[in-house]
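Mods, move this if it's the wrong board.
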Amino acid sequence: MNKIVNKAIDITKRYFFMLALTGMMIGFSAFKFTEKKLDTAWYSVTVAPGGSPENEEELLIGNETDAPFIGSSEDQCATENETIMCSVQLTLDDPQDKPETIAEARDTFGTLLTADHPEE
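Not the wrong board. Structure tokens:
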């Protein structure tokens, strides 16, 4: 038994720096896994049925889009009114926590990056 303990001590002394380096690598890697990843994405914005585009409580945040969204010819975003908000960019801890309206998003995040109807 004593022989095994001496051999373990000898190996530890020989490979101390390698063991320390391996431990550091494992330690730093563990921090990388605990980092919180934020999801930044564009979301479509539509006016609630019967709502007004000027009322942020009636601007509903829809599904995630690939880029700032400009609507179809039937959508208010395709009209000549350049003040209608069509998309909003949100950075969320969890996409399930997406606010339902622009008013709620503004209360949560303050300043919002939006895409309005493009200037003609």
